[in-house]
Amino acid sequence: MPNPTLSITDNRTGRKYELPIENGAIRAVDLRQIKVEPSDFGLLSYDPAFLNTASCRSRITFIDGDRGILRYRGYPIEQLAEKSSYLEVSYLIINGELPNAAQFEQWNHDITHHTFLHENLKSFMQGFRYDAHPMGILVSTVAALSTFYLESKQVHDAAIRRLNMTRLIAKLPTIAAWSYRNALGLPYVYPDDELSFVGNLLAMMKKMAERKYVPTPVLERALDVLFILHVDHEQNCSTSTMRSVGSSFADPFVSVAAAAAALYGPLHGGANEEVLRMLREIGSVDKVPAFVKSVKDGESGRLMGFGHRVYKSYDPRAKVIQKMADEVFSVTGTNPLLKIALELERIALEDDYFIKRKLYPNVDFYSGLIYQSLGFPVEMFPVLFAIPRVSGWLAQWEEMLEDKEQKIARPRQLYLGEDERDFVAIEKRAPTAKKS
Ligand code: ACO
After folding, report:
1. In terms of C-beta density within 10 A (0-12 exposed, 13-18 middle, 19 or more buried), how is residue 225 classed?
2. What is the pTM of this model?
3. Residues lining ligand 1, judged by CB closer than 6 Å?
4. Tens digit of pLDDT for each residue in 345-354?
């Protein structure tokens, strides 16, 4: 059909309307012409939590939740996980194409040369208490970067924008590693330019007295694959936050801090941390059936690492991680919690409650087990999620800034509160009933 439309009849007035359909969507603003009285504001669409509202047109990430498909810039996630590296995917997500050899060399060089933090930031980070959650440190320190790069406010200058995007991608591992060392009371380790992006992160976290830290190749590759899987996931909670905060033309540092804050929550990037806590709490395989029952009865909260707003089948990222787990465990030894996780998955996938609601393991169900086997404490899990996701946030932020249709994000509301009423002096207000 060349110009598809939607016909609407307003049964309040009997009037008919034809709304154009473009890319499988109507424009919510076209509903505004539907009024009973000419002075009405016009019909709104009500969509709490944006279950059915597209807030942008994007060319970055494609997800088909029913078929379990995830593609970055058209490339299937499975191929990228098998054949690419995080840095290459980071270039792809931001620039739209895979880099050629010269472009990759330049990108690698640019990222490697922006990994250092200003020394003042070091003392800023040392101000946190020994038990500060590393995600809280990351959110605050990324926001603090805004005070070091004042020109970053010029968000419409493409060259300045790109420089600060490079800084963010490069400096996140350093902030992450130092937030970890902070908790252990260990001296901060400076970046090592001779190591890969992931190898350098591992070195900054784990290096002790040895002259040079040499990462184990299987573990280095496993972390790189985990990073590829976490680069972008279209308009999720943290990415929408990035776009929303960025839409007021806030600088990229404070915008990324806001996105990272959204990621921190247990229903989003904090879920992998919760999965590990949940598996520990279950304790042994024989306790799994009782735990699943308590979830269904609403006594134990949700089954963490299960369910997804978009995927109504197996999360393709969880499949890649599951396959990779064997390679990691061949080096680190099997994670004792794996048996509980596998049993939990088996029982849940056969249970009517989960089948009916199309609840499958998501990316966080197995990523925590691998992070734990790599020797990271649970508090670091959301931080490890944020390191690669910053590439996705920045790609989406830049796309938003270059999109002529975008304006400052500002949803509407349906006001259901009191109508106008007169102020009552305090002595005339009804007393509160005393508790017995
Ligand atoms: N355990 C038990 N029940 C669940 C779960 C779960 N993990 N997830 C959803 N449900 C149930 C809900 O109670 C609801 O049941 P009802 O219809 O009887 O009320 C139904 O499934 C639909 O759930 P919603 O909350 O409407 O689904 P929504 O799309 O809003 O939530 C979310 C998605 C937040 C991911 C949810 O599935 C959840 O809380 N999962 C656990 C946390 C988690 O793993 N988050 C990580 C997501 S991946 C990521 O962010 C990287």
Report:
1. buried
2. 0.92
3. 267-269, 271, 295, 302-309, 357, 359, 362-364
4. 999 999 999 9
